Amino acid sequence: MNKGDNPPRSLQEEEAYLQEEANMQEVEEEEEPETGEIEIEWDGSEAELVADEDAEEFEDNFAGIKLNYVLKEEEIYDALRSSKSYKSAQKRMIVESIISCVMSGVFFTMFAIDINWTTLVFAILCLILAAVIWPASLYSVRKNAKRLTSGEEVQMEIYPSLIEMGKEEDKWIIPLDGTVKCRKTNHLFVLQTDPSHITILPVRCIEPSVLPDVEAIILSGTAQTA
């Protein structure tokens, strides 16, 4: 044995050394920084390729992706809260809350100057109004989400130029020509087909193998909104 070489280790020392190396590796893996992205877990729904009957001869006959899913109440609730109408209502509620608080302060000041129980009542009423505006709005959205949760299966067929919704007897089409607006959240695609109607596609029901294709088709064929 040359000078400076490590002496041979026993079997027990070798096992202890290997275990220590493994523990250090686990610690290094645990300390890796998170990316901050929310991972959406696929719920097991299957996607299948379907023929595009309107495709030209030179196009792929199996250019469509068929999805079947059932919307959950929380998904409808999140979609409604992300809508443009709700965001407009939020701005209105902020203004109403500020006005109510200001009016309450005015009435309390008037009551302090001139003890008048009527002004005190108005001050309290304005304060209550400011306090209930937000809960009342959220309750309304929750109520609508519950009403819209039918439990019925949604059938969607996604093609490069359009999306077919519904079953054979009552199909309707969402064009992918840039005229439809789309909001994409961490777990939903929300298509605004007209001012009063939305179509919701949860990411959880899209098979990971076709998710990039679905996302590319929808985002390239719609106008994205915040």
Search tags:
226 residues; alpha+beta; PH-domain like; 5-stranded antiparallel sheet; 9 strands; disordered N terminus
Task: Record the SSE blueprint.
Elements: H1 11-30, E1 48-50, E2 64-70, H2 73-81, H3 84-113, H4 117-148, E3 153-158, E4 162-165, E5 172-175, E6 181-184, E7 188-194, E8 197-202, H5 211-221, E9 223-224
Parallel strand pairs: 6-9
Antiparallel strand pairs: 1-2, 2-3, 3-4, 4-5, 6-7, 7-8
Write a concise synopsis of the structure shown.
By secondary structure, the chain is of the alpha+beta class. It contains five helices and nine strands, in the order αββαααββββββαβ.
Characterise this structure.
The protein has 226 residues and is an alpha+beta fold. The protein has two domains: 48-71 and 151-224, PH-domain like; 81-148. It has helices at residues 11-30, 73-81, 84-113, 117-148, 211-221; strands at 48-50, 64-70, 153-158, 162-165, 172-175, 181-184, 188-194, 197-202, 223-224. The strands form two sheets. A five-stranded antiparallel β-sheet has the order 1-2-3-4-5, covered by helices on one side. A four-stranded mixed β-sheet has the order 8-7-6-9, with helices on both faces. A hairpin with a 3-residue loop joins strand 3 and strand 4 (162-165). The longest helix is centred in the middle third of the chain and has 32 residues, at 117-148. It is extended. The protein starts with 10 loop residues before the first helix and ends with a strand.
